């Protein structure tokens, strides 16, 4: 039976290598038919701690906000002896024995796909862990369900995450691991709510209750664990994870498991359930259940694979164009296929195919919302205005208007616009990369040549990375230009004050009255708002010029230039399989 899970692991890795992630796949989708366990839970539900307890290692990124931004396909392999290690599918020849490095690589690989814009992506990361302390098991860690977008994310991120989670768990072959905290009302559990919608009878759902040890005094979770409050086909399993203090102190996972066993064994409320509680029991039960489900699905998988092979052979026969024998002919074929891909990509950007409209949403929704969230009122508080004006005056007060103070206040406010400007660049970059994946999947000519498919995808994404870097420089220059030279006409049109400032005989901190400083703050805020309005129009122009326009003009130019130096690899590119 253990070999069945290993076989499914290999099939999942093959699906990812071939671009089959379920939806919008270039190939007849096998991914959707493979049994898998998807881990679902809200933020702060203890989802990450449950996974780490099953593995027995600290390896998942932690932090505030949405940390998991791509599905993580976690494949656990039990070995009889030897040192524990981990491998990533995208780094096939590198073994990680330091699990802190595993955590960093998960974050880095997430950023490579989504940028640092806090966007999400459905392209999975594959991580295999080999250890004598695990059971053979495959889990898919999905982004935590949330109710509020954080700074740097589009307003529809909440719905995007829910849609991604739903796309995974609504598949009939998906086993749902719904993680809910015991110290919150189960009726408000994000995991239970979405699981109930796709699996109303609870036939595919396993309930996991975390934070049992953090419940209010005098309360317990016995009714839930006994299936009286909310019944599922499979029994609820309670776990006690490490506390934040334990995590900070790097408490050993083996010791944490022992403490968990002792908690259930010694608690009067739970001792009668102790034999089926804890993360170790959870791992064993999930492994056993996954084996059973895989065994029941084998006939269907065999049928689907046979059907897919037949369909692909028919398609290859239809495509059936002979590959040229000479290097020149092969080079021409590669360039023709690339031009077809490039044309499909441009159609997405031009609105002939869907997807390009998301770029406008960044300019029309995300950027204005980010600019609106900038807290200029704090920067221009009475206390800060007084401080910067007096500091700018130095030992001698200004005579007519505090010009240096104005400049400092304006510059310190305008520099905060760099954040939303960078976020807009990263958001458009993420959309452009998603469109590359869409165009790759829609280029039927690339189906016959998986190696070329990978090379074209990598080349396009590398070009987009360069365009993003140039766009970021140009866009930030727009903000810096506004900081370096102020619009003089704006101030010339202001009504002239009769007052000439404060009384220079007073203390430096009492030199200006509140109404005078308030007028300064109001004037600066009006100027900053004027600049925000200007940048709201000019930042999209810079982003479109440096990224969208260049993506349409020269997405594969570097790839074409390098083809002439890669004659040895041209035949490899046209190989029909890996």
How would you describe this protein?
By secondary structure, this protein is an alpha/beta fold. The chain folds into 2 domains: 2-13 and 36-148 and 166-214 and 222-299, Rossmann fold (3-Layer(aba) Sandwich); 327-393 and 400-494 and 510-573, Dynamin, middle domain (Four Helix Bundle (Hemerythrin (Met), subunit A)), CATH 1.20.120. It is 55% helix and 9% strand. It is built from 20 helices and 9 strands. The protein has helices at 2-17, 47-55, 99-114, 157-169, 190-198, 222-225, 244-248, 253-266, 279-319, 327-350, 357-373, 376-379, 382-393, 403-414, 418-442, 450-484, 488-492, 514-554, 557-563, 567-573; strands at 36-41, 72-78, 85-88, 91-96, 125-131, 137-141, 174-181, 205-210, 237-238. Strands 4-3-5-2-6-1-7-8-9 form a 9-stranded mixed sheet, with helices on both faces. Helix 6 (222-225) links the parallel strand 8 and strand 9. Helix 14 (403-414) packs across helix 18. The relative contact order is 0.10.
């Amino acid at each position: 039976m253990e070999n069945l899970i290993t076989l499914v692991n290999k099939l999942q890795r093959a699906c990812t290598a071939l671009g089959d992630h379920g939806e919008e796949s270039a190939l007849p989708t096998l991914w959707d038919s493979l049994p898998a366990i998807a881990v679902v839970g809200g933020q702060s539900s203890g989802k990450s701690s449950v996974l780490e307890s099953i593995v027995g290692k600290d390896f998942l990124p932690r932090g505030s906000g949405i940390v998991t931004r791509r599905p993580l396909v976690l494949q656990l392999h039990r070995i009889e002896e030897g040192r524990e290690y981990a491998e990533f599918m995208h780094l096939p020849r590198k073994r990680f024995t330091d699990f802190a490095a595993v955590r960093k690589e998960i974050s880095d690989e997430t950023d490579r796909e989504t940028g640092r814009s806090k966007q999400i992506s459905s392209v999975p990361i594959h991580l295999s862990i080999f250890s004598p302390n695990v059971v053979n098991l495959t889990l898919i860690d999905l982004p935590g369900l949330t109710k509020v977008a954080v700074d740097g994310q589009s307003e529809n991120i909440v719905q995007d995450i829910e849609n991604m989670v739903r796309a995974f768990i609504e598949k009939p072959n998906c086993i749902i691991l719904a993680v809910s905290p015991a110290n919150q009302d189960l009726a408000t559990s994000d995991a239970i709510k979405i699981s109930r919608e796709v699996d109303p009878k609870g036939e595919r759902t396993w309930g996991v209750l975390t934070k049992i040890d953090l419940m209010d005094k005098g309360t317990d979770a016995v009714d839930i664990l006994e299936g009286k409050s909310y019944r599922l086909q499979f029994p609820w399993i309670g776990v006690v994870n490490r506390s934040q203090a334990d995590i900070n102190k790097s408490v050993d996972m083996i010791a944490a498991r022992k403490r968990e066993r002792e908690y259930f064994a010694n608690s009067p409320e739970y001792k009668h359930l102790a034999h089926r509680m804890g993360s170790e029991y959870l791992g064993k039960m999930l492994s056993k259940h996954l084996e059973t489900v895989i065994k029941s699905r084998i006939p269907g998988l065999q049928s689907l694979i046979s059907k897919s092979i037949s369909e692909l052979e028919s398609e290859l026969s239809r495509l059936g164009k002979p590959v040229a024998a000479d290097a020149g002919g092969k080079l021409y074929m590669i360039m023709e296929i690339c031009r077809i891909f490039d044309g499909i990509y441009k159609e997405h950007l031009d609105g002939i195919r869907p997807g390009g409209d998301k770029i406008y949403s960044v300019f029309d929704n995300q950027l204005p919302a980010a600019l609106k969230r900038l807290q200029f009122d704090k920067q221009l508080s009475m206390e800060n205005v007084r401080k910067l004006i007096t500091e700018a005056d130095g030992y001698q007060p200004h005579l007519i208007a505090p010009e240096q103070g104005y400049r400092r206040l304006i510059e310190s406010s305008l520099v905060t616009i760099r954040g939303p400007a960078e976020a807009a660049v990263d958001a458009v970059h993420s959309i452009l990369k998603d469109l590359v994946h869409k165009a790759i999947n829609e280029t039927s000519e690339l189906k016959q040549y998986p190696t070329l498919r990978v090379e074209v995808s990598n080349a396009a994404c590398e070009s987009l990375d360069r365009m993003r870097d140039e766009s970021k420089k140009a866009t930030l220059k727009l903000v810096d230009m506004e900081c370096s030279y102020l619009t003089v006409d704006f101030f010339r049109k202001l009504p002239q004050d009769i007052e000439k400032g404060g009384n220079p005989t007073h203390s430096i901190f009492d030199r200006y009255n509140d109404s005078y400083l308030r007028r300064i703050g109001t004037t600066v805020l009006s100027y900053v708002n004027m600049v925000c309005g200007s940048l709201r129009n000019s930042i999209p122009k810079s982003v479109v010029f440096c990224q969208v326009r260049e993506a349409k003009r020269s997405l594969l130019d570097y790839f074409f230039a390098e083809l002439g130096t890669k004659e040895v690899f041209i035949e490899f590119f046209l190989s029909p399989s890996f």
